[in-house]
Amino acid sequence: MLRNLLLTASCVVLAAGAANPQRAPVLVELFTSEGCSSCPPADRHLEQLDSQVIVLSEHVDYWDHQGWKDRFSSPVFTERQEVYAREFGLDGPYTPQMVVDGAAQFVGGDTRRAFVEIDKAAERRKASIFLSRNGAGVSVDVEGAPGDADIWLALADESASTKVAAGENKGRTLTHVAVVRSIRKIGSLQRGGTFSRRVDLPTGAAGQRVVVFLQQAGQARILGVAMLPAPEI
Questions:
Q1: Alpha carbons 71 and 180: distance in angstroms, whole number
Q2: 16, part of any domain
Q3: 199 CB neighbour count, 10 Å cutoff
Q4: For residue 117, is it within any domain?
Q5: Which of 144, 189, 216, 220 is deepest in the core (most CB within 10 A)?
Q6: pLDDT digit of tens for each residue in the chain (233 aa)?
Q7: What is the DSSP letter of 10?
Q8: CB-hemisphere CA count at 13 Å for 147?
C-alpha cells in the first residue's frame, strides 16, 4: 500500500534517448521496498523505462519492520528520499515514489505522468559526461555544466529477483532492475567548469552498472547524467 510516513575494454558513455541525439539523457529514481504491496507495479514500470532513460532503484528501509526485511534496503536511500521530501514540500516520504531528474515527483506507477516529466526533462540543457572503464576504476570527465553542482556516483546491480517469504508481498517473486548498492559524492563543479578524475571502484563492482550524475546542491535538479552498463560476460 502507499505509505505516507509523516509517514575489460574501455566503454563509452551510454546516453538515454540515443535514438534521438537532440534529447538529453534523463535520470529516473524509484524509491521502493519489497515489503510494500503497491511497489511491484512501479518496479515493473521502471524495468520498462530502463531502455529509454537512466534508472536507479533505491530500496528504503522503513518497511523492514513490517514483516519482511528487504535485502537491498539501506538507510542511505531512506535519507536521500527524506531530502527529496523536504525539497518538494511533502509531509514525508512514501513508496513507491518516482523522481524524474530531481525536478518532479509522483507515485511510481503513474506511467502517464512519468512520460510527461521525462519529455520535459529531456529538453533541458545538461552537462556532457564521459565515462570509461579504467582498470579497477572508472574515468569521469564532465564539461559544460549549466550550473553549480555536486557530482555523484552510484553502483547498481543490473537486475535482481527475490522470493518474498513474509510481509505484504508474501509468496510473490519480485524482480528489480538497476538496484542501487552504493551512492557517493565524488566531487563538485561550478557553472561552466570541467571535472576529470579516475575513481577507484570497490571489489565486486566489475559486474555492476555505473551511473554518474550532477545534481544541484540541496538535492535539487539533475544537471547531467550518464551510465556505463555492466560489462558483458
A1: 12
A2: no
A3: 17
A4: yes
A5: 189
A6: 444 332 323 334 444 333 345 689 999 999 999 999 999 999 999 999 999 999 999 999 999 999 999 999 999 999 999 999 999 999 999 999 999 999 999 999 999 999 999 999 999 999 999 999 988 899 999 999 999 999 999 999 999 999 999 999 999 999 999 999 999 999 999 999 999 999 999 988 888 999 999 999 888 999 999 999 988 76
A7: -
A8: 13
